[in-house]
Design a protein that fits this description.
The complex is a heterodimer of chains A (about 300) and B (about 80). In chain A, strand 9, helix 4 and strand 10 form a beta-alpha-beta unit. By secondary structure, chain A is of the alpha/beta class. Chain A has 6 helices and 17 strands. Classes of the chains: A alpha/beta (about 300), B alpha+beta (about 80). At the A-B interface, helix 3 of A face helix 1 of B.
């Protein structure tokens, strides 16, 4: 039985792994992959210590730093499906049904992109509906595309599309786009975008590939259509807390509630860090810091 | 024969290429951003537009799906 199982391979999980190893806690880190949500980012400029680093490079650095430590076991390529409380601690279940036990757990599963949950979204995923502009923008050469979401994610996706798309519609649910001024300026200067606010996207349609979408003008109630060959969904992120929803207290958005002094969850023996939690600011640097706080607190708990 | 259809910025494409290199597997790369013929071929083979698309002796894998890649490589051996 392990003293600690860390679940997640992003900055929070990795920071926890490095510290747990160095504190000689008998720990296991279980992750589907390494790097976290920013792995697809072409250029990260705010990871402290690096003027500029790609998400991919950061993921490699994190993985190498973790694997360089002695004494921590790493199970890669494994997705945790369920976590249960047992008398001695916790049972962590992998997708294949295998269970691993530990005295304490640190939840660092992060978040995933929110979906629209509208007709056509699933059907056209990869066939015109995309969630990663850096990956898929190049395939939009000379096409009209729609970016759903007028926040930073949306405007950054629009910016990534500028070299390729012929026309970019940005559809925002609320009355105004909330992206940072810096990004808005860059996107607007190119002259090929059109912002449609108070828009609720209702359906994505096409033949073998996406041909267009239908949206409701929330002010007038009218349904309108846009002919587009690509739809980039950038409406925010939702925490990966399904495996613990009956284990620890969540807030109304599904984030794991934590004591921000110790990173303890509502359940004794379970800590959490990173975007999975109800932390106010979701940042790689903060995720790492909070995970370290959690491990030091876990160390105190185990050694008392 | 292993073929990979990729774009310049795509992280999962880079991961796939590095994975092949780490296993000493030779592959042919087609940048669908620059090569329109390859782009059309990729869409035809995979019936979708996302990258990477990996063709291992006719078996088409979409995305950096290690499990499917390993399985296809075993069949190749």
């Amino acid at each position: 039985m392990y003293e600690l199982i860390i679940i997640g391979g992003g900055p929070a999980g990795i920071a926890a792994g490095v510290y747990a190893a160095r504190k000689k806690i008998n720990a296991l880190l279980v992750a589907k992959d390494f790097g976290g949500q920013s792995v697809t980012s072409a250029d990260i400029q705010n990871w402290i210590g690096a003027k500029s680093v790609s998400g991919f490079e950061l993921a490699k650095m994190l993985e190498e730093h973790l694997k360089h430590q002695e004494g921590i076991e790493v199970k890669e390529g494994v997705l945790v499906s369920k976590i249960e409380k047992i008398p001695a601690g916790f049972a962590v279940y992998a997708e294949n049904g295998e269970a691993i036990e530990a005295k304490t757990i640190l939840l660092a599963m992060g978040s995933r992109p929110k979906k629209l949950n509208i007709p056509g979204e699933e059907k056209y995923s990869g066939k015109g509906v995309f969630y990663c502009a850096t990956c898929d923008a190049p395939l939009m050469k000379n096409k009209a595309v729609a970016v759903i979401g007028g926040g930073n994610s949306g405007f950054e996706a629009a910016r990534d599309l500028l070299p390729y798309a012929e026309k970019i519609y940005i559809l925002e649910y609320l009355e105004e786009c909330k992206a940072d001024a810096v990004t808005c300026t860059v996107v607007r200067a190119a002259g090929k975008e059109e912002e449609i606010t108070s828009a609720a996207v209702k359906e994505i349609f096409g033949d073998a590939f996406v041909k267009g979408l239908k949206y409701e003008d929330r002010k007038t109630g009218e349904t309108k259509e846009l002919a587009v060959g690509g739809v980039f969904v950038e409406i925010g992120f939702t925490p990966n807390s399904e495996s613990v929803k009956n284990l620890v207290e969540l807030d109304k958005w599904g984030h794991v509630k934590v004591d921000h002094k110790t990173q303890k969850t509502s359940l004794e023996g379970a800590w959490a860090a990173g975007d999975l939690t109800d932390v106010l600011y979701k940042q790689n640097n903060i995720a790492a810091g909070d995970a370290i706080k959690a491990v030091l607190n876990i160390h105190d708990y185990l050694r008392k | 024969m292993v073929k990979i259809y990729s774009t310049t910025q795509c992280v999962y494409c880079q991961m796939a290429k590095e994975y092949f290199k780490s296993k000493n597997i030779a592959f042919e790369e087609y940048n669908v951003e620059q090569d329109e013929r390859a782009a059309a071929e990729m869409v035809e083979k995979s019936q979708q537009m996302g990258v990477p698309v990996i063709d291992i002796n006719g078996q088409i894998i979409i995305g950096f799906d290690k499990e499917s890649i390993n399985k296809a490589l075993k069949d190749l051996a």
